[in-house]
Amino acid sequence: MLSELKLPDYREQAPEVAARFRRIKERPIILSVRRLQKTFGADDAGHVALSDVSIDVHRREFICVIGPSGCGKSTLIRIVAGLDEATGGEVLLDGHEVCGPGRDRGMVFQGYTLFPWLTVKRNVMFGLQMGGDSHSTAEAEARQWLDMVGLSKFEDSYPHELSGGMKQRVAIARALANNPRILIMDEPFGALDAQTRCQMQAYLLQIWKKVDVTILFITHDLDEAAYLADRILVLGTNPGRVVEFIENPVPRPRSAAQFISPEYLALKKRLEDVIHPQVESAEEEKLPMVKLTDAGDEVE
Ligand SMILES: Nc1ncnc2c1ncn2[C@@H]1O[C@H](COP(=O)(O)OP(=O)(O)OP(=O)(O)O)[C@@H](O)[C@H]1O
Ligand SMILES: [Mg+2]
């Protein structure tokens, strides 16, 4: 059990990690979310999905967003993407207020969003041609990105011929082809099996190393957040709010071998503590129980 191990303080950073964060903080702020408010429905009877959320994200930072279901993770990034409107506060990208969707933000969702009637290459070309690129320019650009995600051989395949992981690699290529300032990812690997998911995480880090892009990545998986992120934004629920913005103490480059390192375990324990706050042990006899089985043995 993590709670029984003697772990370092999750805020303790090795000198190289502290130096890395100093360098990150010297980079310009690319995304600034200021006092963001989102209420669904009429103001007095409405549901407050986000309350007073403020964050600054530096250029080329990898931010993971975690928090219980319904805490407003998707709402936050939909507003950053310009797909939803805030009811208060503002979002600035490169100092300019976000007022709707734009090519400076790429999106990858959990569900497969490729156009099934277009080939892999045409899927990546689509946004480029919509943006005014000629066929040949878009094709050359698409090929470059498909090469980056290791799918050159599949450029003429259709989405139904690809595995889930491959589809998400095409989705990443399609999002990055527009040269966005921010890549916004809402549980992109949530539907993949565990092994493919690990491969995709490693792929994503490799891609991010080569591309000048800032990543905002929602996940439910604490290991995924600890493996990928520079910083982890923890949101709380009712109303959706910032609980903590944690600097990840695990050095880069990341590897599976770090999963048992003291700093990794300390971070994981902290994340578990904030995500699953201590629940008072339920007094069983007070719960209304209906017995539906009579198998002869007791289930603990
Ligand atoms: N269009 C909408 N109309 C009304 N309420 C909404 C709408 N979209 C989201 N909500 C509510 O806002 C809250 C935050 O939703 P959101 O989808 O952002 O949560 P989430 O953290 O992404 O959850 P999950 O982890 O399950 O994806 C929830 O209570 C949800 O019911
Ligand atoms: Mg969501």
The main β sheet shows up as:
6 strands, mixed
Overall CATH class of the largest domain:
Alpha Beta
From the N-terminal CA to the C-terminal CA, the straight-line distance is 19 Å
Question: Judging from the principal axes of the Cα atoms, what is the shape?
Answer: globular
> What string, H for helix and E for strand, traces the elements in order?
HEEEHEEEHHHEHEHEEH
- The CATH homologous superfamily of the largest domain is named P-loop containing nucleotide triphosphate hydrolases
Strands, total number: 10
SS-based structural class? alpha/beta
Q: What is the fold named in CATH at topology level of the largest domain? A: Rossmann fold
How many discrete structural domains? 2
* Rg, Cα atoms, Å: 21 Å
CATH architecture of the largest domain: 3-Layer(aba) Sandwich
Helical residues, percent: 25-40%
User: What's the tally of helices?
Assistant: 8
What percentage of the residues does DSSP assign to strands (E)?
15-25%
Order of strands across the main sheet: 6-7-8-3-9-10
The residue-averaged pLDDT reads: 92
Name the poorly predicted regions. Answer: none
Heteromolecules bound:
adenosine-5'-triphosphate, magnesium ion
